[in-house]
Amino acid sequence: MEDSITEYEHKLLESAKVAAQEAGVILKEGYYSSRRVDFERKGVSDFVTFYDRAAEKCIIKRIRGLFPEIAFMGEESGSTAGNMSDYTVIIDPIDGTNNFIHGVPHFSVSIAVTKGSEILLGLVYQPLLNEMLWAARGSGAYINEKRLRLQSARPLSEMIVSTCLPYHGKGDCLTSLNHLKKLMPIVAGIRSPGSAALEIAYTSIERFDAFWSQGAELDFWDIAAGILIAREAGCKVTDLNGDPSPSQWKSLLSAHPERHEELLSYLG
Predict the structure, then answer these.
(1) Is the overall model pTM greater than 0.70, yes or no?
(2) CATH for 263
(3) Mind listing the pLDDT tens digit for each residue in 230-246?
(4) CB-based contacts of 25: which residues, under 8 Å, 6+ apart?
(5) Residues 132 and 169 grouped into a single domain
(6) Pair 143, 217 in one domain
(7) What angle do CA 18, 21, 26 make, to 5 degrees?
(8) Do residues 224 and 134 make contact, with C-beta atoms less than 8 angstroms apart?
(9) Cβ 212 vs Cβ 227: under 8 Å
(10) Residue ranges of the alpha helices (H) in the chain?
């Protein structure tokens, strides 16, 4: 990896990788359990399991043990202030909890680190495939230890794009339906697998040619790591107004820079 982050940040990245792998062990245990995974409702179509909480505690314990001064923002535990540090660790212990509960093998551990308002580090780990997509700002993006670089852009007619669709009680269904109506006739396929962190990160390895979202409700922990990974691989990531750094991410498009504006013309 190119040396564009400090030694402190490099150690923080390595600690986050280990934490994600340890959390992945917990998730694999739950996923391969012979019994149905129990869950609680946090809200409408918003579920949490023992494994969400256990994975998040594992991640915080691992990183805090080496960096006690750092702040945390976790989906399950909320925000914890740091001590004399500008760094915050952003954690989604299971991005795709609904898939996890139903035994669908598409979910991930997502960890990002911000410094002030800047996303500095990001990783998305798929424990069932043992694939870790990760990036450090200015140092490129990687899958495990392989550097990622975009190839030439496919035409829209050959592209498979991904999205998060709204569902029962969450999001703007009409907006998503309008987007689908515009894109379905011009692309080769549209997928909504159910782990936004993973799908944004997948644009960096071109498993998906693009990812967009507006109708669904996505939180910062869903998208932060994926945004950095996609950008470091060469994707252009903005909201659907074309803003690369909105104060709040109400929408998102990650795509090859040669196709980004073209897609925005259909989605914006």
Answers:
(1) yes
(2) 3.40.190.80
(3) 999 999 999 999 999 99
(4) 127
(5) no
(6) no
(7) 130
(8) no
(9) no
(10) 7-31, 50-66, 97-102, 173-183, 196-202, 220-233, 257-267
